[in-house]
Fold this protein.
Amino acid sequence: MTSCAFVIDVHDLEKGGTADDLVNVRIRPYEIPYRALIPESLRRLLVAGHCISGSHEAHASYRVTGTTMALGQAAGMAAAWAVRDGLDLDAVDGRKLRRALQERGAKFAADVRVVHQ
């Protein structure tokens, strides 16, 4: 539903997360599915940006501004469709949402060229 290609930017929590502890792990672009925005135990709520469900390592990659903005756009569009069509948020079709975002210029993992240094 949205794509991310940022490195895994993990700071060692045991050492206080200083710049000296930074670990940059190069990754291949990946996609974040719409279902990651839907909380398991709350209805009528989408979470985007820093609030989505993921591991500590995943969060270290998708927490960057470009990805959080794309997640917000997807959440806003899904919420508007749900209201317009009288749907629960988990009934919004993630594949249809992805296509609509792509039509509006969103880039996905298959669209991103991997550059290795």
